[in-house]
Design a protein that fits this description.
Elements lengths: L1 H18 L4 H18 L1 H12 L3 H21 L9 H17 L5 H18 L14
Helix pairs in contact: 1-2, 2-3, 2-4, 2-5, 2-6, 3-4, 4-5, 5-6
Length: 141
Amino acid sequence: MLIDQFLTSWADTYTRNRRSGVSAEVALHRSVMALARGLQCDIRTRAAIRLLTDGPAASADLTAIHIPLLTLIRQAQSEGAIVANYPAEVVTRLLLAFVWYFSRAPREPAGRANHDAEHACDILLDLLRPDRCAAPARPCG
């Protein structure tokens, strides 16, 4: 039940961000930040994620988080907002690792934690922009 509630909430967040008429880059940023904030501030979200990552059906359930982010990353790459030759799968895992880190990092006062997560997300997404970085020296794979 807890996992179902979280997955429904996540699907609603993703759908709302995509339907808002913004670019994939903005929708990606909003989606990642919503997930990070939920993990920082909501014990039910943290519990659902813990059950998802540690439970027996973890890989199947995590696709409900992974696939929407992967889709946004691919769209942002096609829009030129993220380096196109970075494997979208790797970028997705990088963003999820970022979110998981902030869910487990030592707690700051609420306002500070949200600011730090937003700032880190901005830096991370900025580093993926084509105008900010060179192509990788060797392909990932």
